[in-house]
Amino acid sequence: MTATLHVAPQVGEKDDVDERVVRRKLGPGRRIRFAFWVGPLLVLAVWSAGSATGLIKPAILTAPWDVVEAFRDQWAEHDLLGNILSSLTRAVLGLTFGVLAGVLLALVSGLSRIGESVFDGPIQIKRSIPTLALIPLFIAWFGIDQEMKVVTIALISLVPIYVHTHNGLRSIDGKYAELAETIGIGRTEFVRHVVLPGALPGFLLGMRFAVTSALLGLVVVEQYNATSGIGHMMTLAGQYGQTDVIVVGLVIYGVFGYLADTAVRFTGRRVLAWRRTLDD
């Protein structure tokens, strides 16, 4: 008979107790339903009020209703849907490759001393080199079309996934390893039941940074010889002084990022229900 090591419930119980204590210290209050919409709606309200009263000049920032009108015009007359799909395709492809590569490298480096000595150093060096500074090299290697854009987004997404997942793998409490040795748990089962679940919070935190990084990369690469996409639309708008269309693009980028971050946080709540934190 093989012994099985279960640590998640105990950790979850401790975290729930800690959360209740912290909440009592911070003050009473109930969780606000759909709280993640409060901030954006407040920003929209301030923006609308400023535009309506003239405090925010159109030359500084287009009014929300003018942005809505520009959105309708771009949708009906300039294939806005096609531009959105083109940008989403680049972002999703780059993010997917970056996440897969980051997780694989983190597992090899985090679970093996040899793997860590081979991969960790180069990736730490890469962290000090902004990925966007490598775009001229990527253009020379991959050309200026879709491949360069996807590779840039993938590489810029890889680093946060690797760093936070690797940190999660390496920060497992040593008492669990001692307990596993005491009850005869093998390495494979220890990794499967303790190390990998313990690294999930780090991976999800890395995902939040990776999503933001992917959008940052998307904004930049779409300025290079793009014939479609939100960045292409914004570049044309800048040439013709269409600030309302530029704001449309910025809003779309912001919505992309906010929805993606919300999806990661929602997933984290479900997957890590036993490790709830204050910022959820």
TrEMBL record:
Where it mainly occurs, coarsely classed, is membrane
Topology term for the membrane: Multi-pass membrane protein
User: What PROSITE patterns does the entry give?
Assistant: ABC_TM1
- Please state where this protein is localized: Cell membrane
Q: Where is the ABC transmembrane type-1 domain?
A: 84-264
Alphabetically sorted, this entry's keywords are:
Cell membrane, Membrane, Transmembrane, Transmembrane helix, Transport
Q: By what name is this protein known?
A: ABC transporter permease
Q: Which organism is it from?
A: Actinoplanes ianthinogenes
Encoding gene, per UniProt annotation? ssuC_6
